Amino acid sequence: MAKPLEFETVDEEVEFWESHSTADYWDDMEKVEFEVDLHRNLLHPKLVFLADQPTKCPRCHHDLEETTIQYVTLRDGRLVMIRDVPALRCRVNGHEYMLENTLDQIEQVLNLEQTQKLRPVEMLHVPVFKLGMAA
Q1: How many CB atoms sit inside 10 A of residue 98's CB?
Q2: Does residue 75 sit within a domain?
Q3: Structure-model confidence comparison of residues 23 and 89, the more confident one
Q4: Which residues of 119-133 are buried (b: 16+ CB within 10 A; e: fewer)?
Q5: For the chain, what is the domain count?
Q6: Is residue 63 part of a domain?
Q7: CB 50, CB 98: distance < 8 Å
Q8: Could you count the other beta carbons within 10 Å of the beta carbon of residue 35?
Q9: CATH of the domain at 64
Q10: Environment class of 24 (CB within 10 Å of its CB; exposed 0-12, middle 13-18, buried 19+)
Q11: What pTM was estimated for this model as a whole?
């Protein structure tokens, strides 16, 4: 049985798995199940969702600062923006994180909007282009 692996940072773990085969550890791995919502994060590809608030950046261990972002998502073919969303940003590398409970609050806002129990504070017009227009 292989020794359980522990890493200080996500980058350290990535570096390890880029140079090692999972086949060497297959028998020691636990079976897990998870769901992936491929549409949730397309507009914020660098935003990582965390269950608990870290004291340091999970990727590089530098200090984090509290900030607010504009969260944009696609809902029924429409862009929806939610402003003043709390997030965490690494002071050195700019990695961005959002806590899962904040994501739950976003889902509540989207559900209220969908059932017309919440009205937007403003409407924005979004220009749409086709790639071939530049040719």
Answers
A1: 19
A2: yes
A3: 89
A4: eeeeeeeeeeeeeee
A5: 1
A6: yes
A7: yes
A8: 4
A9: 3.10.20
A10: exposed
A11: 0.64
